What we know:
By secondary structure, the chain is of the alpha/beta class. It is 35% helix and 19% strand. It has 15 helices and 17 strands. It has helices at 17-25, 28-41, 49-57, 84-92, 136-149, 166-178, 195-199, 220-230, 258-266, 312-327, 343-355, 374-390, 413-424, 430-443, 479-493; strands spanning 59-60, 66-67, 73-77, 110-116, 119-125, 153-159, 182-187, 210-211, 246-252, 284-290, 293-299, 330-336, 358-364, 399-401, 456-463, 468-473, 501-506. The strands form four sheets. Strands 4-5-3-6-7-8 form a six-stranded mixed β-sheet, with helices on both faces. The protein has a six-stranded mixed β-sheet with strand order 10-11-9-12-13-14, with helices on both faces. α15 links the parallel β16 and β17. α2 packs across α14 (430-443) and α5 packs parallel to α6 (166-178). The longest helix is centred in the last third of the chain and has 17 residues, at 374-390.
Amino acid sequence: MAADNDTDFDEFDAGDDNLEENLAAVDDDLAEQRAAALRAGLEDYDLDDEDAALLEGIVRGEDGIEFLPALPVVAIVGRPNVGKSALVNRILGRREAVVEDTPGVTRDRVTYKAEWMDRRFTLVDTGGWEPDAKGIDRSVAAQAEVAIDLSDVVLFVVDAMVGATSTDEHVVRLLRKARKPVFLVANKIDDARQEPEAAALWNLGLGEPHPVSAIHGRGVADLLDEVVKVLPDVSAVAKHEIGGPRRVAILGRPNVGKSSLLNKAAGEERVVVNELAGTTRDPVDEVVEVGGKMWRFVDTAGIRRRVHLQQGADFYAALRTSAALEKAEVAVVVLDVTQPLSEQDVRIIDLVLESGRALVLAFNKWDRLNDDDMDGQDRRRYLEREIEQDLAHVSWAPRVNISARTGRHLDKLVPALETALESWDQRIPTGKFNAFLTELVAEHPHPVRGGKQPRILFGTQASTRPPTFVLFTTGFLDPGYRRFIQRRLRELYGFEGTPIVINMRVRERRQR
């Protein structure tokens, strides 16, 4: 009977003391030569255009580390049902985004790889905004700021047959503040007779409207010709380098002490603190000095259970919390040590992992666990057991025991943040990474599955924030074996406080 495909490969962790010594003895030049030979061997395998772009795009920095330049980002924004997803499909040349004649089909921001005139870029499709929903103005601002801040160029889509609305004018004000190149796209101009309708959009003050028909493709090529002229060679924001102090999002369930933590860090009552859960509704930004450095802390609304996210202010509070996390670089998840860890806590941590942000766990209200109190001692023992059971998948995240109310151990938060951010930015040279893979596979080859044994042909770190590795393989690697590679990477290179992403590209040998 075949072994379980989701095996943790824990048996591999024994007897690996020589791995680190062997890698340390590998000469850097020799490692680079071996990596170059492995990379050349990929020519015998069927590679697609994306593979070639990945391999050709790898450049050597001044420090000798090879990396993949960040593609420029083009965001498509606009209110519901103006044809944003249809424009995405037209640019991509295939039906990727869901298109339906109903407002609000797209809800998440979705990214695609696009190309025009030999220029590759990242295309971001965003959800539209309902103009008449309760509290939508603030939700519009939160979503628009994320889409605009994390882009190099913005395509603002307006329904030319309807004309400019109050919602369009609201977005225009945000676009002007962002100081990003903006192209006003007058959509649904299906023929030359309708072009005068686009001229009316001059009143928005964003320059010349570009008449297009996303459905029929009319005018889209002319639009893209103009867009690629202003695209930077390397994105200034794709790695979330928004500038200024490092951005820290404070997340957690309602009433765990997030606002108290911000107030203590700021040294003043910056936000309202109340025993009533859910006091904070809007993300609150505050630049504070902690540990001799300036940080931008963002207090967010407590994330409730899914059942409570269906309507009202709580829904929009959760929406703005997700937007704040998207704009952050590191997340501090606050946990209440006086309460058992819940499924809700784990879900919030998983939300951070899905976003790819660095992670620090802050166990708050530690002052309530008195060493002399028997109940406090019992709670500590239960807490350690809960951490081992429920948080084993983030055992790499720095832990800080604090009291937001008294300020106890708040100084330990800064070293944890710095460690997590340093790991988030960490790169491994391609030569050393392939030497690591060679040694690892030699000692612990992938098990045979169905009579075949997948091989790793070549590996490279494609990006940071979070560290993302691409493995070219001859077959699918078991999830357990990928986790095993992640564990060995952490043991050798640290990566404390950051998730590690390992992607695979399964390729077959060319037919002779």
